[in-house]
Structures are given as structure tokens and as C-alpha cells.
């Protein structure tokens, strides 16, 4: 479980997150929605301890996120697989090496012969054809690159998966592919997942629960079916597909 408790975060005089509390429960797929610039990426960075909050606390699997304690922070980070908005692959390394990267870096596989089957397994999980094994990232479509970055994250078996805007900038076909993949990961891995996004369609298709953030506050927290009938103004805007500035 990830527990976010009374988190406040400002940058200079700009209050971004104002007393935010929520939990991601075991096996749950939690979507956090908000307009561009509302603090979604900041929230993910706080969860993995890349930045510190001003007030409040966060725990991941019962462990406090404490940016001042590198040893405990390393343990928290090992539990979390963060998939960045942009694939952030190593351009000069093959798909195989990109996916194997975390396994090697963390020394998770003692026998080098076991790396290949692990990489193959992750490629199957994300529906990436193994013929891409020796390709370089710039030879792949954007959605395939995204799959590589997800496979790389899954390879180290995180307890928690955190996605930053998985479908942003994708065309409808690629978005549908990504949504199906998110649903498949949920079905097959049953891993606790937090997705921050402003893609309401993706959220309604994939989420067990939705949280909506507006002006630093949670303005909705509930199941997709309740979101569909919510009277919260921003929920209505999202449903009606009002232009959200991105
Ligand atoms: N390191 C930083 N320094 C100053 N301001 C920041 C920093 N990171 C984020 N912000 C500000 O915090 C707000 C929320 O950013 P972000 O979480 O990236 O939004 P989004 O919801 O689009 O992911 C923005 O106004 C952004 O400019
Ligand atoms: Mg962001």
C-alpha cells in the first residue's frame, strides 16, 4: 500500500499541493487526474523521494519515504517502478540491453544466462515482438519505445508501478494499445499501480479508482462509475472533454 498523508508542496510562493491525502490499496489501479501543471509529476516525484515535501508524510509498503535517509530511500525506490512520461531509453543500446539494464545494474540476476529469459518474458508481457531484440530505440515506433521502457521497469519486479502520463502525445491507436496493456498488466500481475494522467478516457477504461486534483486539492475520489455522475465542476469538464490546455 502507498499512503500519502497531508502532503503540502510549494515552489517559491506557488502552492502546488495543499494537504493531499490518499492511499493506493493492494492490487488497485489508481488514476490521478488533473490539468496540466496541477502537480501530478510532482506527486510521483514525492512518492519515490526525488523531491521532499514541505509537510506531511508518505509511506510505501509500510516504509516511510525520507529523502534524508539514503539507505531507506534506496529500499523504497527498489519497490517502485517509475515509468517516465517519455521513454528515456539508452539510444546507443539495443532493446535487449535497455530491458536488461536494471537487472544488471541492481545485480538481480546472478547467472548471466538467466538474463535473456527474463528479458524475453518482459517482452511477451508488454506484447513486444522479440524480433525487435537487437533493434535500437530510434528504429522503433513511439509506442514500441514506450513498451520497452515499461518492460525495463517490469524486469526488476517492482511491488508498485507508477506511470507518468502513459498515453500523452499518442495517437488514438497507440493510446488504445497502451490502455489494453495497462489492463493486461493489472489482470496478470495484479500489482498496485498509480497512473497520473489527464487522459480521462484512459482512466475510465483502466482505473479501479480515480482521484481528481484541482488547485492543489483532491476534489473527487471514487470509482469510475461515480465519476460519471459526479457534479464536481472539473469532473464535468473532463467528461465533456473541454480543452484542458495540453
Ligand atoms: N523543480 C521545480 N521547481 C520549480 N517549480 C516546479 C518544479 N517542479 C514542478 N514545478 C512546478 O510545479 C507545478 C506542477 O508541476 P508538474 O507536477 O510537473 O505538473 P503536471 O501536473 O503537469 O505533471 C508547475 O507549476 C511547475 O512549474
Ligand atoms: Mg507531468
Structure description:
- With 246 residues, this protein is α/β, with parallel strands linked by helices.
- It is built from 9 helices and 10 strands.
- Bound molecules: adenosine-5'-diphosphate and magnesium ion.
- The site of magnesium ion has 4 residues, from helix 1.
What is the structure about, briefly put?
This protein has 246 residues and is α/β, with parallel strands linked by helices.
Topology:
Layout: E1 2-11, E2 14-24, E3 29-33, H1 40-47, E4 55-60, E5 63-64, H2 70-79, E6 80-83, H3 95-105, H4 115-125, H5 142-155, E7 160-164, H6 172-189, E8 192-197, H7 200-206, E9 209-214, E10 217-222, H8 224-227, H9 233-240
Helix pairs in contact: 3-4, 3-5, 4-5
The protein binds adenosine-5'-diphosphate (ADP) and magnesium ion.
Adenosine-5'-diphosphate binds next to helix 1.
Q: Report the average pLDDT across residues.
A: 91
CATH architectural grouping: 3-Layer(aba) Sandwich
Low-confidence segments, given as residue ranges, are: none
**Spatial arrangement of strands, main beta sheet:** 6-7-8-3-9-10
As for the CATH topology, it is Rossmann fold
What share of residues is helical? 25-40%
Main β-sheet, in a few words? Answer: 6 strands, mixed
Please identify the top-level CATH class: Alpha Beta
Which distinct ligands sit in these coordinates? Answer: adenosine-5'-diphosphate, magnesium ion
CATH superfamily: P-loop containing nucleotide triphosphate hydrolases
The tally of domains stands at 1
| Global structural class | alpha/beta
> What order do the SSEs take from the amino end to the carboxyl end, as H and E?
EEEHEEHEHHHEHEHEEHH
Distance between the termini: 31 Å
Structural Rg: 18 Å
What fraction of residues sit in β-strands?
Answer: 15-25%
Amino acid at each position: 500500500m502507498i499512503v500519502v498523508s497531508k502532503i503540502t508542496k510549494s515552489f517559491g510562493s506557488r502552492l502546488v499541493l495543499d494537504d493531499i491525502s490518499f492511499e493506493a490499496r493492494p492490487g488497485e489501479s489508481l488514476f490521478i487526474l488533473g490539468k496540466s501543471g496541477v502537480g501530478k509529476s510532482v506527486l510521483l516525484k514525492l512518492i519515490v523521494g526525488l523531491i521532499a515535501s514541505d509537510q506531511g508524510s508518505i509511506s510505501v509498503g509500510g516504509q516511510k519515504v525520507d529523502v534524508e535517509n539514503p539507505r531507506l530511500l534506496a529500499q523504497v525506490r527498489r519497490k517502485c517502478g517509475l515509468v517516465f512520461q517519455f521513454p528515456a531509453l539508452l539510444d546507443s543500446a539495443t532493446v535487449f540491453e535497455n530491458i536488461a539494464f536494471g537487472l544488471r545494474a541492481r545485480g538481480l540476476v546472478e547467472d548471466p544466462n538467466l538474463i535473456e529469459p527474463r528479458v524475453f518474458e518482459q517482452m511477451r508481457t508488454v506484447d513486444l515482438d522479440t524480433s525487435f531484440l537487437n533493434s535500437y530505440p530510434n528504429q522503433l515506433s513511439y509506442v514500441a519505445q514506450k513498451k520497452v521502457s515499461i518492460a525495463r521497469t517490469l524486469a526488476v519486479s517492482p511491488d508498485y508501478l507508477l506511470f507518468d502520463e502513459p498515453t500523452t502525445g499518442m495517437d488514438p491507436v497507440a493510446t488504445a494499445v497502451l490502455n489494453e496493456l495497462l489492463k493486461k498488466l493489472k489482470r496478470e500481475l495484479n500489482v498496485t499501480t498509480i497512473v497520473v494522467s489527464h487522459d480521462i478516457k484512459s482512466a475510465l477504461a483502466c482505473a479501479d479508482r480515480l482521484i481528481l486534483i484541482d488547485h492543489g486539492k483532491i476534489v473527487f475520489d471514487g470509482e469510475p462509475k461515480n465519476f460519471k455522475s459526479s457534479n464536481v465542476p472539473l469532473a464535468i469538464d473532463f467528461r465533456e472533454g473541454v480543452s484542458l490546455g495540453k
